[in-house]
Amino acid sequence: MNYTLADLIDTTKLQEMMDAFYDVTAAPTAILDADGTVLTATAWQDICTKYHRVNTGSLLRCQQSDAYIADHLINGSAYALYECANGLVDVASPILVDGVHIGTIFTGQFLLAEPDTDRFRQQAHAFGFDEGGYLQALDQVPVVQRDRIEPILRYLSLFATMLAEIGLQRMQQLETQRELKESEQRFRMAQFSLDNVSDGVQWLNPEGRHIYVNQALCRQIGYTQEEMLGMGLDQIDPNIDIAQWRREVWPLIKERGSTTFQVIHQHKDGSLIPVEVTGNYMQFEGQEYLCTFARDVSERKQQEAELRTFKALADNALDGIAMASLDARLIYMNPAFKAMAGLDAQAQGIPVIDLYPAETQHAIEQEVIPTLMHQGAWQGMLEMCRPDGSRWIAQQSAFAVRDEHGQIIKLANLLRDVTEQRRIDMERQRLVAIVEKSNDFMGIASLEGQAIYLNDAGKRLVGLESEATFRQTQVIDYFPPDEQRRVQQEILPTIFQDGRWKGECRFRHFTTGELIPVEWNVFLIRDHTTHEPISIATVTRDLREQKQGEAERTALQEQIIDAQRDALRELSTPLIPISDHVVIMPLIGTIDSQRAEQVMETLLDGVARHRADLVIVDITGVLMVDTQVAQAFIQAAQAVKLLGAEVMLTGIQPQIAQTLVHLGVDLHGIQTRGSLQSGITAALSQNNRSQVRGHRSEVIPNGVNRYET
User: Fold this and answer.
1) pLDDT computed for residue 689 by the predictor
2) Contact 361/382 with Cβ under 8 angstroms?
3) pTM over the 0.70 mark
4) What is the DSSP code string of 182-246?
């Protein structure tokens, strides 16, 4: 380090010494630093201080004189005497410290002979000095004989040597202080660095005891330096067997010189900290030590665990994950992406653009990648192709991966194969269109009965004008009060038990209150995986037109039945007139009570309509006659008689005659004949006689005709 004379000498005391020297010798002196800085000045002449060193021109001469003296002193001279260009004489002795010129002792300014006044007068004019004052200052400059200068020069030379020795001692002292200060500063810096580095530092002796620990290690494990000094490794690492460490680990580290390993440090509070330790074997002042640097790797371990977790998530994700370099080449693919894209490990490094069909590649180059680079993200759905030529649709979420400085370093993409979902969506859209366009009431409700969906036809059917009103309805609200109990207690339990119910019900119109007959086909919707019910759905048909049609058909059927009944009545109980006053009713088949009633009605109607006197009832085709039928015949005969006509029963078969006898049926008042032919003959004969005589015949009780005029 370079020192100036002022750094090595007490200039205040030096000035006092030079002033005392002047008092004794009357010799003016000055001591200058190596750069010309005046440190002391005693009896310095005014001609120099007020004139020569003030004016620029004369000062240049002074500097030339100083340079000459310095050159000669550097050459090894004990002193140098020189008359400057301004006419004065200076003598200088160098002050050399450790061979370095750091200052000069001057004596002067003086004259060796009487001055040349004309020269100084010209010099005053040349530099613009005040001639009178300048010459007056010249008169003050002493004239010194050369023999008087020698003792002074020897003294100054010795004094300069003494100053040099003092300066050297002082320089050595300063240098020692500087080195000590620097050493102390380096030590403090080293200590500060050790205490403030993130890694823990410890010095261990061969016994595994702590000789030194820095603050970072203390912060890591919660002890103070005082607590740790003297503690053994086994007191901060629960996994260390100190005897084994001394026997095996210490020799190994000593042999290798340096090694890195991972251990566990136990915090003062009992928590465990994973630590990476780098140990270095050292010898210092004849002693062996192990200097270790311990780094808390908890965060790194956590990051590694998170990385493993994220890798496990990526490897097991159902969605595809892919990464590409900035030149758009694949650098990572998770198994799901490989499977859905039909790729193998050999595909790594291929251009991403090759995963898309030709018609999509333009969009990738012109839209997707530029958007990623400028906006950092892109989402959309694109068709992709596999190596075998098959195509699939991927829902994609691409984004730029940036480094800690925000620079894009790679491109990532999350993909989901939505090919099947798209197909399902299209089918769903078709189904929704069908449902929306359907004329049937189609709706969905929660398992609790809250309305979820109802198509437009359903809303029109029950008069729900807004979606908000519909959302407030429950399943039970669609039924009139007298049917709600049935729905709650019978139908809904059946649905939850059997999974469906179908039958006729009545809905109510929310606005008019009209009761609407419907066919309510309601069923459970189940989860396709668990098969657990998740909602209730219905496809309900309005039966009003059907009911009206059925009523019309019923009325028509009744008309047809009535007509058929009349036709059958006519066919089953025909009434055939054979003359103006005789009609025949042939009966065939079985006679029941209903038909017997029809017979009576027909007989009475026919007698009245044809004004008949005789009705022939032929039962040749009747298979069986019981008491009820016989009684009906008797009642018919009595009724006909009230109309003024008679009844003749023909065609009685032997088995029927036997039955009538066994039953004790009394046919009194009814004419009988064995056959229809004989009956007709008898009737016509009776009719003819009645017309000839003009008399009306009358039936007597024994069955013989009696004629009256």
Assistant:
1) 64
2) no
3) no
4) HHHHHHHHHHHHHHHSSSEEEEE-TTSBEEEE-HHHHHHHT--HHHHTT-BGGGT-TT--HHHII
